[in-house]
Amino acid sequence: MRASQINGCAYCLDVHSKDARAIGETEQRLYGLDAWGESPFYSERERAALGLTDAVTRITEGHVPDAVFERARAHFNEQELTALVFTLTTINAWNRLAIAMRTEVGSYQPKARP
User: Fold this and answer.
1) What Cα–Cα distance (Å) separates residue 86 from each residue in 29, 61, 79?
2) 105 part of a folded domain
3) Which domain does 26 fall in, by range?
4) Rounded to whole angstroms, how far apart are CA atoms 103 and 30?
5) How many CB atoms lie under 10 A from the CB of residue 105?
6) Which pLDDT belongs to residue 114?
7) Which residues of 13-47 are buried (b: 16+ CB within 10 A; e: fewer)?
C-alpha cells in the first residue's frame, strides 16, 4: 500500500486496503500508513521495510540511501531482503500498469477466506 500511496495508484490502494482489512489489518494502521515515520503503530522491522519502500519507489530522487539499506539489512536476512526488494519493484510496476491502463477503481472485492 505504501508504494501505491506514493505512486497515486487508486486501483492498487483500493485492492490492497480491502485485502488488508479482510485478513484483519486495523483501520488505525491503514490510516496511519502515509505518516508511518511519525505513527507508533509499526514495529521496527515494519519501519525498516517502509523506509526501503519509500526509497525504492522514489529511486529517481537519489537512489536508496546507505542508511536506509543498512536499516533494512539489520531486520531482514539476505533471502528476505531480496524478496522484499523484488516485491517492491513488482508493485511499482503494477502501479504503473494500473495507472496507464486506467484500471477501474472500486469494484474489487476480496475473495472469501476459509
Assistant:
1) 24, 19, 11
2) no
3) 2-100
4) 22
5) 14
6) 64
7) bbbbbebbeeeeeeeeebeebeebeeeeebeeeeb
- Quote the CA–CA distance of 68 and 37 in Å, as a whole number: 13
Check: CB of residue 21 under 8 Å from CB of residue 30: yes
Distance of CA 15 to the CA centre of its chain: 12
Domain annotation covers residue 95: yes
Q: At 6, which helix (H) or strand (E)?
A: helix 2-7
Q: If 0-12 CB within 10 Å is exposed, 13-18 middle and 19+ buried, where does residue 53 land?
A: buried
pLDDT digits (tens, 9 = 90+) for 41-69: 999 999 999 999 999 999 999 899 999 99
* Whole-prediction pTM: 0.91
- Does residue 78 fall inside a structural domain? yes
Measured CA to CA in angstroms, residue 4 lies from 44, 58, 96 at distances of 21, 12, 9
| Residue 111 placed within a domain | no
Task: Report how many domains make up the chain.
Answer: 1
CATH code, domain carrying 30: 1.20.1290.10
CB 7 within 8 A of CB 92: yes
